[in-house]
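#onboarding

Welcome to the new folks! Below is a worked example of what a typical request in this channel looks like: someone posts a single protein sequence, and someone else replies with the predicted structure as tokens. Don't worry about understanding the tokens yet, we'll cover that in week two.

Example request:
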Amino acid sequence: MIDEAFQEKVAEWLRSEGYPLEMQVATAFRKSGFQTIQSEFYDDPDTGKPREVDVDASVQREIAGTLVRVSFSVECKVSRDKPWVLFTTGDTLLAEPATVAQRAGTPLGQRFLYGLARQKAIQRLPLLALPPRPSYGLTQAFGGADRAYEAAMGAAKAAAASVREGASWHGLCEIVFPLVVLDGRLFEAFLAEDGSAETRETASGTLVWRQQIVGMPHTIVAITTLADLDTFLRQAVETADALLKAADDLPTILRRADETARRIASKARRRPRLAGG
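Example response:
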């Protein structure tokens, strides 16, 4: 005889822990053309201990012996009773080339982005451009464990681990976007023009952390609510398609990146030193 009451109790526990959300997000990525892996393990870059990322999604193509891949390291969180708050400002915008170049990538992937960073069409791609008010921090409202911070850190560490693992494969040109999907309400808090604090509900945001988790001066994490996931996926497809198409000219882009790096290094060597001290 089926114990329906106990069965429902198990189902309720699964819902509270977010497992159906992981399945829903993985399914949505697959329907958008991405290959997905659920509950992927990686070694924490700080502790070396195994950790788990909820969903790994990717799309790729091979070009002249090089595998070009665009990936997403996704943390999924349920927080219906405790909304998350993004602290946003219009005063900390990165230069447009930096919003492209400062992304998680294998060495080949970083060279690829560096070579593309000054192209206006690439800068305007929805997942590479920043919103008018990017976030510099986030938290979970109403106390308790700060699952918002933990989720963003988990997605960023998973992205860092992915590119570090891929670095040993010299034929892998991979770019990884850390992403958090929230089943709950998201707000942004900022100062209005009159200096008063203002809070506004939002469907998504972009966290620009001054933390070198992915090996760049900033770590950029996308935050989206479940209600806005379809919009994010359309942007993900547009961005990934454009990057994979740009890779048709991969040798030229890499050569351009190397020449730019050499010019910058040469100027730095010629810079006069200050006397004294």
